[in-house]
Specification:
It is an enzyme of class 1 (oxidoreductase). Helices cover about 55% and strands about 10% of the residues. By secondary structure, the chain is α+β, with helices and mostly antiparallel strands. Helix 5 packs parallel to helix 7 and helix 6 runs antiparallel to helix 7. It starts with 5 loop residues before the first helix and ends with a helix.
Length: about 350
Amino acid sequence: MNAVDPELVEMMSAVFAAHRERYEPGEGITELWDQLGELGLVRLTGSEEYGGSGAGWAEAVELLRAAAWHGVRIPLAEHDLLACWLLEAAGLEADDSRRTACLLDDDGVAGGVPWAAGADRVALLWRDGTGYCVADVDTASLSVTPGRNRAGEPRDDVSVDVTALTGTPLPDNVIEEFTRRAALVRAVQVCAVLDRTLALSVAHTSERTQFGRPLAKFQAVQTLVADIAAESALARAATDGALAEALRSDWSSEHLDFLVAVARSCVGHATSVVVRNAHQVHGAIGTTREHRLHEFTMPALSWRSEYGSVAHWDDKLMEYATVAGSDGLWALITATGD
């Protein structure tokens, strides 16, 4: 990905840091949303023709990382990278309403929709005959059952009578890109909280003493932290690799689905190691409400299972490996083809 202006990255981080000093997780969303809107960050990747800021994924990734790093939970990805992008792809105008997006099943139901109850509108996707349609719908006209993920974020069930909807047709490749985007968004966010978990673990083991010396001096603790660092780096490398290929090919690479599966599998398994080891090195204090560790480990555990569970992505990799066979496995991994 292209490098992002360091001043922009610093500004993003400062906004979320200041917000986190004033509010507890999940609070002050409206105030922060208004501030981000004034800064042009709510529709960061939207084209200027459709009221966006005209930035790219590189800037969006830094925005998502900054929010996750500071423990701020807000539907920026759902609004900008999913819902508003879908509307723009369909040639539909998007006003300043806060949005999320979901893919309905054949019964017009979607479970665990991020931030649906608090959204003004929902970009609904559903299969209509042989193709897919999208509609920008007022949330008040939907049946929404509030829910939460284990990190305490809104994950709501949505249902609607699709026969009463008027939708705009979409090509199949848009649906494919939607699923890839959603999967990589969560990978980016998980990587950010894993990096923050590593930073907290390094700080804790450096500052905390036991038997007259810092925890970081004990070999067993060093091994735990080293594994956190290694798994976090692996997850980030796999995610960055998939993103780079997505942007290079405008989300159309024949290898992209495989790379997304690799990223999500690596992220999912890395989360298990990072969360376990981080809580081990923090000890009892890491389980308290007052300590911030849970603000990053709980989202990591929640996000890794959204838009496809770890088992789902592992199964995808197994399918790719089985089809490639022993003769084609190296070409699959290196994406060289024949």
